[in-house]
Amino acid sequence: MPKWVSSERNSGLFARPLGHRINGTHTRFHALNYTEFSKIIYADVDYMLMTNIDELFDISDDFAASPCSRPGVVDPCFDAGFLVFRPDTKYYHELMNLWRQLATKQYTFPDDQVLLWHYYALAGNWKALSFSFNIRLIIYRPLNSFHFAGGPRYHPPKPWSAKCRPSRKEASDFNRPILVVDDMVIVFWKNLYELLKKYELEDWWRSSKLFRQDQEFVGVPPAYADCIERERVKKVSKPEL
């Protein structure tokens, strides 16, 4: 992180440390230096594609991203979890300079998404992708993607860290229409289980800390649905702090 990002606490928003939100997420900016490529598509690790995206490489604009909110909701923001951009070292250095300028003017530090908005959107150099490339929190059609993003107070945990997990049989048997967010979690596991087999990654998966023998192989329908319901009951019955 640049030296001018202070670690001292401030009297700004909830007295949070300067730069606390951008720590780590700013690394995506370095992709702008990969000028050996004519176009780059960046996706967060919690982003799941549901369709082919080759057509996005044909976008002529320098930068493209999906709005943060679904159509009909006014929200001057785009989501930085899925980006299409033309790499250029000039853009990288200008972003870094803007970052430095904003850091010295504001008592709280802009995160990567705010910084990108200032640089691209406010300058009118932004092509809006369909919200279907940034679906989160709800189910939306066309279902081109799903982003398991959001804070813990209004979004379920990531599929791999959640307490509930469908067994391999439950995931394999899933073939009904996707109607709720919990369905997307099952689709995630169905895809992962199939890829582990296709690319012979079973040994690696079993050696990782994310593997759960009891849930993946012991659970039988409706084990996952029952687990989800139990967690919801716990959440509802938990007293407000």
UniProtKB/TrEMBL annotation:
Organism, per UniProt? Answer: Desmophyllum pertusum
Which top-rank group of organisms is this from?
Answer: Eukaryota
Protein name per its UniProtKB record = Hexosyltransferase
